Amino acid sequence: MKQKLPKSSAKTIALFPSNFRFITEYSFSDAHSRSIKIDLVSIVSLFLIALIFIQGVVLWYNMQQREVITQQRGQVQQEVQYWKGVADKYKGYRDVYYRIALLQYRLGNTQESQQYVKKALELDPNFPGGHVLGAQVGL
To answer: In sequence order, what are the residues at sequence separation of 6 or more whose Cβ sits closer than 8 angstroms to the Cβ of residue 106?
Structure first.
């Protein structure tokens, strides 16, 4: 004969989680995914348009700066021509040759600047400005 075992009064403890739990999953609908794509394309497009606008402003600013620099360069070239005329008329003035050398240096013509510094230093070997400019132009 089979005997039934007495039921225990303690509750059994589950070792594994209950199978009744579930995780909700969010899925995009077609309409929702299209609106997300449209939003992303719109944001990227606005960003690119803003970059194009900024580059346009930078380009305009650079063109204005170029115009100013070109005008200044023209003025310096006119001043060089004036001082060359003075140097031809009055030979032997170190300050005239120094001024031409300085203007040539500002224009970026280092070889011509070296020639005029040499002329100024030949006239006055103790001329401190000539030595400073000579060091800058590579004498």
So the answer is: 76
